[in-house]
Design a protein that fits this description.
With 256 residues, the protein is an alpha/beta fold. The protein has helices at 3-17, 22-29, 33-45, 80-89, 105-113, 127-133, 158-164, 190-201, 240-248; strands at residues 20-21, 49-52, 55-58, 96-101, 119-124, 139-143, 147-149, 154-156, 169-174, 178-180, 184-187, 203-209, 221-224, 231-234, 252-255. Strands 6-5-4-9-12-14-15 form a seven-stranded parallel sheet, sandwiched between helices. Helix 2 (22-29) crosses helix 3, helix 4 crosses helix 5 and helix 7 (158-164) runs parallel beside helix 8. The longest helix is centred in the first third of the chain and has 15 residues, at 3-17.
Length: 256
C-alpha cells in the first residue's frame, strides 16, 4: 500500500471510529508503528487529524460542541437517528455532478459517508463539512466565504450569499432550526437564513434533513416555504399528522 492510500485509509478509520490507535493501525496495515506515527504527523500538518496520546482524532471531532437541541445544532453527530437520516440521504446523491452540503450534524455525517467512487463537487458553508471532504479523492471542494457563525460553525452574511450567485448544483442537502406546515423552513439566525435561501435557489432539487424534534418549531428567521423543498428525510418518531400536513404543503417525506 502506497503512502497516499495508507493516509486515506487512516483518515477513513479515524472518522468512522472517532479515535485511532498507533499500535492497532500498524497491525492492521502491516507496517511499523514508526511508519504510522510519520503518517499521523503528515495528516496533522495537512490539518485533518490531531495527534493525541497513543493515536489521533479527526479534527472535526475536536471542535467545541455548541449548546441546544435544534436540528441545525451540531451536537452528538453520532446519534442513531442522524445516522439513519444521513444514510437515507445517500440515495439522493447524483452519480456525478455538484451538491450543496449545508451546516449541521447530519450533513457532517453525510459528508463522512460520501461514496469514494463518484466525481462530485461539494459546495458548503460548513467548516466541519469542509474538513471532512477536503482530502477525499474525487471531491472538488468549494467553501463559501463570509463571517463564521460560531454555533454551526459555518459562514454567513453577504459574502457567503454572493459566493452562491450564478451557481447551479444538482442537489442541496440542508438542515434548519424549525419546520412547520404554515411557515415552512425557519432559522435562528437572519444571516444564516439568507445563506440558506441562496443555497436553496441554487439547487435543482432540495433535500431537507431533519430529526422529528424540529417539526412544529418556529425559529425567528424565515428561510422558505415548503413548496420550495422536494424531499424531507426524517426519523420514524415524526408525528403522523404533522407528517401529513408537511406533505400536503409540498415535499415528499421519507422516514428513516
Amino acid at each position: 500500500m502506497y503512502a497516499p492510500e495508507r493516509h486515506q485509509e487512516i483518515l477513513t478509520r479515524a472518522r468512522e471510529r472517532g479515535r485511532i490507535n498507533v499500535r492497532r493501525l500498524a497491525q492492521a496495515l502491516e507496517v511499523t508503528p514508526e511508519t504510522i506515527r510519520r503518517d499521523l504527523a503528515t495528516l496533522e500538518r495537512h490539518g485533518v487529524l490531531r495527534r493525541v496520546h497513543g493515536g489521533a482524532m479527526p479534527v472535526e471531532r475536536t471542535w467545541p460542541s455548541p449548546a441546544g437541541t435544534a436540528p441545525g445544532d451540531e451536537r452528538d453527530a453520532s446519534s442513531a437517528s442522524r445516522e439513519r437520516i444521513a444514510r437515507a440521504a445517500l440515495a439522493e446523491l447524483p452519480a456525478t455532478g455538484a451538491v450543496i452540503l449545508g451546516a449541521g450534524a447530519t450533513t457532517v455525517r453525510l459528508a463522512e459517508l460520501l461514496p469514494q467512487d463518484r466525481d462530485l463537487t461539494v459546495v458548503t458553508p460548513s467548516l466541519r463539512v469542509a474538513l471532512v471532504v477536503a482530502t477525499r479523492p474525487g471531491i472538488h471542494l468549494h467553501v463559501l466565504g463570509g463571517r463564521v457563525l460560531g454555533r454551526s460553525p459555518a459562514t454567513v452574511g453577504p459574502w457567503a450569499a454572493r459566493d452562491v450567485d450564478d451557481m447551479l448544483v444538482d442537489v442541496a442537502f440542508l438542515e434548519v432550526d424549525g419546520i412547520t406546515p404554515d411557515l415552512g423552513l425557519t432559522s435562528a439566525d437572519p444571516e444564516e437564513a439568507q445563506v440558506k435561501r441562496c443555497l436553496l435557489a441554487a439547487a435543482r432539487r432540495t433535500v431537507v434533513l431533519a430529526e422529528h424534534g424540529g417539526f412544529g418549531r418556529e425559529a425567528s428567521a424565515h428561510v422558505a416555504a415548503l413548496d420550495a423543498v422536494d424531499t424531507v428525510i426524517s426519523d420514524t418518531e415524526l408525528d403522523s399528522e404533522l407528517a401529513e400536513a408537511i406533505t400536503a404543503a409540498g415535499p415528499r417525506i421519507e422516514l428513516a
